[in-house]
């Protein structure tokens, strides 16, 4: 659907997006995952034609000229700080966004009912936006972005700061939309959401460090992961071990990376006398977090 080649955006001395080449296929949920400041928003803004690239290309596959311009104009973009009008009701907000797309009232009404049903906001049509919960506000923002029936949705960290239950709910809506054929590009700083995408690109310091299905990215992980439960939370006892390629504390346990051919017993033997109160050592499959920690540190996968 969209392909970028060496897409770059420079702000003064900073290269916010650095030679990014990605391809988003029609009908997929493509996740752009990375820490704050990675360049996700800047990349999305270029794809929506809101800012001009410094260099590189954006190609809309199977389209050119006027059709391509129209297609970009029809994207539904939900920016990070989406402004809803707090003193307007849910329905008044939707009417406002629909009117910006020159839609007539009846069309807006029937589309709104359909989307509000899907997002479970139908009961709140007359509630002021200011009185919605955080998760509901995000769903209303999504509804507003959908009212123009876009060919593609571009969502910039739509679940940022939203509680876990509402995040799940939001993703359920994205899955429903995708099942109906919607292509979705979504950025997130939450690693668990990377697993929910069909394809994921990890972005860091303007560059794409890896792009593939979450499963393939994990399969290519070059190390064995040992999960160590210990009484100490201090990484110090692992630092001096020559077998250890990397180690970090994550989810109440240590994740220790060793070469694939290093036996667990060899690690156990080394840490046995270290007085770290090791309770349990077991091999675990690499998680998407393991991949991303390594990518952010070393950019090797
Ligand atoms: N208009 C601008 N002028 C100067 N620098 C900018 C501009 N827009 C973004 N930047 C810088 O470019 C870098 C990438 O920012 P961007 O907002 O694209 O990252 P991000 O991955 O979306 O992170 P966040 O989630 O924090 O927004 C940051 O260092 C940011 O300060």
TrEMBL record:
Signal peptide: none annotated. Gene3D superfamilies: P-loop containing nucleotide triphosphate hydrolases. InterPro entries: AAA+_ATPase (IPR003593), ABC_transporter-like_ATP-bd (IPR003439), P-loop_NTPase (IPR027417). Residues 2-230 form the ABC transporter domain. Keywords: ATP-binding, Nucleotide-binding. One of its GO terms (molecular function) is ATP hydrolysis activity. Coiled coil: none annotated. The keyword ATP-binding applies. It comes from the Bacteria. CDD domains: ABC_DR_subfamily_A. This is Putative ABC transporter ATP-binding protein YbhF. It comes from Pelotomaculum schinkii. The lineage of its organism: Bacteria, Bacillati, Bacillota, Clostridia, Eubacteriales. The gene is ybhF_2.
